[in-house]
Design a protein that fits this description.
heterodimer; A: alpha+beta; Gyrase A, domain 2; Alpha-Beta Plaits; Elongation Factor Tu (Ef-tu), domain 3; 6-stranded antiparallel β-barrel; 5-stranded antiparallel β-sheet; 8 helices; 20% helix; 34% strand; B: alpha+beta; OB fold (Dihydrolipoamide Acetyltransferase, E2P); 3-stranded antiparallel β-sheet
Chain lengths: 359, 126
């Protein structure tokens, strides 16, 4: 096995007493004091995640817009400098190469933020299409650090570190400005927790200085375990769990970022499938019987016939009940449908719910 | 890490406290730390007689689930139902209020096969 990569903050996490685990080829903090404390801190107040493992690609050149229109499903022409878009890269077999954020840095200059586990795959995939376009790509993943400072109190807490009016920034916009004494930082009103807050992109050399400046304002560290429970409460897809190379963007509920008003990889055949009707759907569900759903547990109907599979599940710390997501046959996908989750040999009752679970 | 010297330990990270012919069983401080925040403990074997290493229940943390194994054989005479309502006690007080079951031992000599605190400390790298 390859040696695990570290981020610019790995040693700092150890000093803070984090439990470190391998994740997507990186050694990352799973938790510090404890998942529940960290989860509640972010949902109700503030918390800071080191997510420097995420990948960043710069795409620029005369055809940058045309290239991204081809390889991503959302309509990149809607972006203007300072705006961000959630999107996905469909593959040639009706699956998903990755989900990503597209930042419009300037006209025909974009930053793509991709999942750590997919950096190499995404890079090769994009390269294979880039040759037909006048674009230059740079993989800056190893030189950029990313701090996700999340929670409803974050705008207020971080205000002293920048002249940008954080409270005025709208969701899915960013600004480049000095932050905590570092010259050119991307301050992005995004995140994977649904709790509000910002993601801060900065050079590795400045990561520790900025982490410490934010910590000094009373923002506690939070680990990947809390990041997962926070995202699941909001029904956000996790690549590798809820979506992957074989999941259909529309079945995954990503129709809202799949724009058939433009041409992209597999757009014609995805549209045909949309019109013919989907076979299965990614849904959220809540447990009625006591038990916690976990990835790969079978989903069955009342006669124990298999109708799907759990892709993510947890005890929701905010709701104090068990929730999950999974693919089910389209006939069982309406909110209110009664389904059963097989938990260690027992069929436990659950009900399909609208997501997000937590408003 | 807390490893009380008056208890016996299994390789599956259960601890055993002898009370006459009974053994009180829970999971070690190391085990609760590895599991993380525990959200429920399921034991449906009260009244059953089980062999060593048999699964007597399961313990669910937010992120993971783990089976619970009998460190010795006997009849499960009591389940600590208070931890159904307060599963976090298994994290905060694993050797006290977080105890899980009480077993009537079928063969007390099985205790000799368990580790003492020093051997268990070596196992978990304490």
């Amino acid at each position: 096995m390859d040696k695990l990569k570290s981020t610019a903050l790995t040693e700092l996490h150890r000093t803070l007493g984090a439990k470190m685990v391998p994740f997507a080829g990186y050694e990352m903090p799973l938790q510090y004091k404890g998942l529940l404390d960290e989860h509640h801190a972010v949902r109700n107040n503030s918390g800071m995640f080191d997510v420097s493992h995420m990948g960043e690609f710069l795409v620029q050149g005369k055809d940058a817009l045309g290239f991204l229109q081809k390889v991503t499903s959302n309509d990149v022409s809607k972006l203007s400098p300072g705006k961000i878009q959630y999107s996905c890269m469909p593959n040639a077999e009706h699956g998903i190469v990755d989900d990503l954020l597209v930042y419009c840095l300037d006209v025909n200059k974009y930053m793509l933020v991709v999942n750590a586990s997919n950096i190499d795959k995404d890079w090769s995939w994009l390269q294979s299409y880039a040759s037909n376009f006048d674009v230059q790509m740079e993989n800056n993943s190893d030189s950029i650090s990313l701090l996700a400072v999340q929670g409803p109190k974050v705008a207020e807490l971080l205000q002293s570190l920048t002249e940008v009016n954080l409270g005025d920034m709208t969701y899915y916009t960013f600004q480049r400005a000095p932050f905590a004494g570092v010259e050119d930082v991307i301050i992005s009103a995004t995140g994977y927790t649904g709790a509000g807050g910002f993601e801060i992109y900065l050079p590795n050399e400045a990561a520790e200085q900025v982490w410490n400046a934010i910590s000094a304002l009373g923002v506690p560290p939070a680990g990947l375990a809390a990041r997962d429970t926070l995202r699941l409460e909001k029904g956000f897809c996790l690549y590798g769990n809820d979506i992957n190379d074989t999941t259909h963007p529309l079945e995954a509920g990503l129709g809202w970022i799949t724009k058939f008003t433009k041409e992209f990889i597999q757009s014609d055949s995805l549209l045909v499938q949309k019109e013919e009707g989907l076979k299965r759907r990614l849904v959220g569900f809540g447990m009625i019987d006591r038990g916690i759903p976990r990835q790969h547990y079978p989903i069955v109907d009342k006669d124990d016939a298999i109708i799907g599979e759990v892709t993510s599940g947890t005890q929701s710390p905010s709701l104090n009940r068990a929730i999950g997501m999974g693919y089910v046959h389209i006939d069982h996908s309406k909110a209110g449908s009664e389904i059963f989750i097989q938990v260690r040999g027992k069929s436990l009752k659950a009900v399909v719910e609208k997501i997000p679970f937590v408003q | 890490m807390n490893i009380p010297s008056d208890l016996k330990y299994s390789k599956e990270h259960e601890w055993v406290r002898v009370e006459g012919e009974h053994a009180v069983i829970g999971i070690s401080d190391f085990a609760q730390g590895e599991l993380g925040d525990i959200v429920f403990v399921e034991v449906e074997t009260e009244g059953d007689s089980l062999d060593t290493d048999a699964v007597f229940g399961s313990i669910e943390a937010v992120k993971t689930v783990s089976d619970l194994f009998m460190p010795l054989s006997g009849e499960i005479v009591e389940f600590n139902t208070e931890i159904e309502a307060n599963p976090e006690w298994v994290n905060s007080d694993p050797y006290g209020k977080g105890w899980i079951i009480k077993v009537k031992m079928s063969d007390a000599s099985q205790l000799d096969a368990l580790m003492d605190a020093s051997a268990y400390g070596d196992l978990v790298g304490a």
